[in-house]
Amino acid sequence: MNIIVISSEGKVFVRPDTTWERDNEDFYVPDFVDRISASEVLFVRVSKPGRSVSAKFAERYYDGAGRGFLLYPEDMIDGSPEGFACACCLDHTSFLPFPVHGKEWLEDGCSERIREAIARATTFCYIRTGDIIAIELSPRKPLCSRSDGRFDVNSGDCSFSLIF
After folding, report:
1. Backbone angles phi, psi at 132, to 5 degrees
2. For the whole model, what pTM was predicted?
3. Intra-chain end-to-end CA distance of the chain, in Å
């Protein structure tokens, strides 16, 4: 299972499933991380495998949706492609709460955005049943720094604590 991310700039990259925080536990920030940013995402669970899926048929490829957050350790993002890739691999940094909502839960405009994201993602990679496609709703924003000590985030269906 992969988490396929469509960035706010439209880039496609993949986070491993080890980044998914499944148990709604606190996130303990490693000692080498001093700054965390976050991006809110709309995500869908893939229900049918596919490649090169047309936006016209993309609705057939997911069965539920939700909102969550992706965390990024800014200290690791040094401007190099490797730095960003390393930052996307840090364990337990994808907060995507399950169970997901049905398609009827989606607000106006979200369905079209999801169809376009599935089409874009499947241009680059094969999606499998159980994969998650996460669409960043905005660029990364600073969330907290080590000098903050403890930082709690609560937002609707998604809540988590960052502990330094």
Report:
1. -120, 135
2. 0.87
3. 29
Amino acid at 47: S
Closest CA relative to residue 6, chosen from 110, 139, 134, 138 = 134
Contact 15, 154 (CB under 8 A): no
Per DSSP, the three-state class of 79 is: coil
- Residues 6 or more apart whose CB falls under 8 angstroms from that of 65 comprise 42, 43, 44, 45, 100, 101, 102, 103, 105, 106, 110, 114
Among 107, 130, 131, which residue's Cα sits nearest to residue 121? 131
* Ramachandran quadrant class, 73 (left: phi over 0; alpha: psi -120 to 50; beta: rest): beta
Q: Are 134 and 94 in contact (CB under 8 A)?
A: yes
Q: Cis (ω within 30 of 0) for the bond into 99?
A: yes
Token duo for residue 86: 């390393």
Tokens of 57: 């048929």
How confident is the model over 6-49, as pLDDT tens digits?
A: 999 999 999 999 999 987 777 888 888 989 999 999 999 999 99
